[in-house]
Structure formats: C-alpha cells, structure tokens
Amino acid sequence: MTRRLPGGTAALAGVLLASVVGGCSSGQAETTAAARTPRLPSSMDALGASGTRGYNTGCPDAWTDCPESSWATGTDPEVDSVYLRLLAHNPQIENHQGNDAESGTAMADLPGQAVSAVRRHAELVMISMGTNDACGGRTGVMTEVATFRARFASAMDALSKGLPAATVLVMSIPDSFQVWRAFHTDPAAVRAWGRAPFCPTLLTNPTSSAPADVDRRTAFRARVLAFNTVLAQVCAAYPGCRTDSGALFAAGIDAAEVSTNDYWHPNLVGQAKTARIAWTALGY
C-alpha cells in the first residue's frame, strides 16, 4: 500500500502574469487566447542533475544513469516524459531531445549546461537543479543563498541571450526531507544511505534525535525553501521563463515513488509524477 507523507509547508506561490481585457469582441478574445498558447517546440534540452538523468530508476544495472527513464527527455512509455508528450503532438521534435544534465552536479554547473543548450538551439529548456546545493554536495556544506542566486542568474542570462525565443521551464526543488521522514526507521534505507551518502546534510546520522542532527535536517529543509524562492524570483525577471509555481515541492514524495536501490532517487513512478507536473506547468 502506498504511504502518503504529510505535505508540510505550503507550496511557494509562482509568479503569474495575466491580462484581463473587458468588453472585447469574440475575435479579440480568440486572438488573445492564441497569443497566450505557447508554440510547440521542435527541439528541447534538459538541464540538471541525477534526477533528470534517470539515475537508479530501475535500469538493468543499478547505480547508473538511465536517461531513457528521465521525466524530461526519456523514451520509456511508463514514464511518459515531456518529450514523449510533445512527440505525440509535434512529430518534428523526434530525436531532437538533448539531455545535458549530469549526475552529482549543483547550481555552479548550470551555466555550463546552459551553454550546451544554446549550442543545441533548443526551443524548450527545462531545468531541475538545487537539491545537491542543499545536500552539500561532496563537501557537506550547503550553498549560500546569495551564491545560489548569482549562479542561477548567470545561467538564465546565458539562456536569455543565446536563446531569446526559447521557453524555459524551471522546476521547484522537491521536498526531499520527506524521503528521510519516510525511511529513516527502515534498516535497508539506513544501510543504503551509509554506502552512498548522497545528501550528508539530511541523511547523516539518520536515526539520531540529537539536537544537532535535528537542527541540521531543519536547516536543510529551510534552505530548500529559500532556494525555491530564489528560483521563482529570478525566473520572473526573464520573459521566456516560467516555473511550476512550486507544484513539485507541494506534491510531496510518496514512499512508492523512491528507488529501493538507494532510497533517495525517484523511481519510474516518481519520474512519471514529475513529468505530469512539468507538462501541466508548460500549458501546451
């Protein structure tokens, strides 16, 4: 039976721009609606880290990238990625789905990934980045909020200048604190976290209730919330950028959506959920 975890903090509000024109004719209303409907892209690129690479989703070999399972660009029908959904409406996008995400990366790496998206002339760029910054990467030290903001703005500058007509979708950082909450009493999960400490700021001493460990986990979640605020604020400054309005964070994480290889990354069910949320946010 699927266990549903508490939702926790309410989703961050996205930045919504809307125009309401009163008394317009039927033709004017249709023109306005058409202008708001985004054009289907014929090329795309996905930027981010391991989640966007489909890492440990149930691949033939565990502990590897499995990009065919990616929520963004994958070809596994069980995931029904954004790419497959676009392909169903626009055959011109076939085999024009880049994936320049890289497992283990953080916001410091996003500007370089953005340059790759520009080289691909992508008409749609999807970004899912920030969990590793809160996790402390390989150092165990969380990225400062101001540094996170500057690095994200640098990536957005590169995309805005290099791909001025592209649509950029920025996904909120998921509420990974709920993964710890779901599994910290599960011996198999604790063993897996010990073998591969993907998120030291959250998963170190996972069974401890000592004040220092509780405070560290609380700080992790607070940093995710702060990063999500930054993503929304910076994205709002660029006309071609939109967010998921905090939907991925708000959706929480079900235990059934997590890989039992590492008890951290999303499995196929989790990838499919992310694809649904991204597709809704795109509004095609």
Q: What would you say this structure looks like, in words?
A:
This protein is an alpha/beta fold and 284 residues long. It has a single domain (42-282), classed as SGNH hydrolase (Rossmann fold). Helices cover 41% and strands 7% of the residues. It has eleven helices and five strands. The protein has a five-stranded parallel beta sheet, with helices on both faces. The chain is globular and about 55 Å long.
Can you summarize this structure?
The protein has helices at residues 26-36, 82-89, 110-119, 131-135, 145-162, 177-183, 187-195, 200-203, 211-236, 247-250, 268-282; strands spanning 44-48, 97-99, 124-128, 167-170, 241-243.
**Beta content:** 5-15%
Quaternary structure type: single chain
Strand order of the largest sheet: 2-1-3-4-5
End-to-end gap: 33 Å
Number of strands: 5
> What is the CATH class name?
Alpha Beta
Question: How would you classify the helix and strand content by structural class?
Answer: alpha/beta
Low-confidence stretches: 1-35
